[in-house]
Design brief:
Strand content: under 5%
Largest sheet: none
Order of helices and strands: HHHHHHHHHHHHH
Distance between the termini: 13 Å
Number of strands: 0
Length: about 270
Amino acid sequence: MMRKTTLAVLLFIPLVLWKPASSPAVEQPETVCIQCHGSLPDRLGAPVKQWRGSIHAESGISCNGCHGGDPKDAGGAMSPERGFLGAPKEKDIPGFCGRCHPGVYKDYLASAHGRALGAGGPTCVTCHGNHQVVKASLALINEKSCTRCHSFERARAIRDAMQQTEGYIDNISERIAAFQVSGVDTERMGKSLFSVRNRFHTLFHDQDVARVKAESAAINGELGKLDASLKAIEKSHARRRVVGGIAVAFMVLLAILFHLMKKSYD
């Protein structure tokens, strides 16, 4: 009897404590572009080295995702007949990137930066890089980068207005991801966060300080609703852990009592 009770306890504990592991990221196969240029020195090989540390590489977007061509055939990799586009001219860069980022492209064109396109204004690669594409974040709004073209005062005010919101988004994103891994249905919250994040990203190309401040405050309100939903789930999970802990303690105590009773009758 003692052995059966102990076995039941040992089987019950993992059910209380177990959490499913997240699936490993799928490694993207290398294209012929990377295989060829990756072995070349200096200027011809540099794009591959830069790309490997980019958000594009992290997201599985390879050379052909931007430049076209056949990524599986070395002979057709740079063939216009197979969609090869090559490198765009400076004035065409925003439209080139805008094929995948139409919303950002629209925001850029409406901004002071976009209105200066072709007249010395910055393009996407000025801030985000070309092959070493950097993920959009407030880290891009920094004195070193911005003062290449103008003073930092306005940019600093915009960054400061957005800083709290970005941290709020990151916090909620991490909590949603954690719940998703543990099996909680987070689809609705994930979609809401996706919408809020996209709304937030439209501010990255806005140079109107007052509008950025007002919109950041409104976005914080939307994030507050998600935060409240997450706190409700966290509270529920905390209760479950307490109940689970009590159940485990009860089973252990029961096993000990059975053991003592058995000894007293032996």
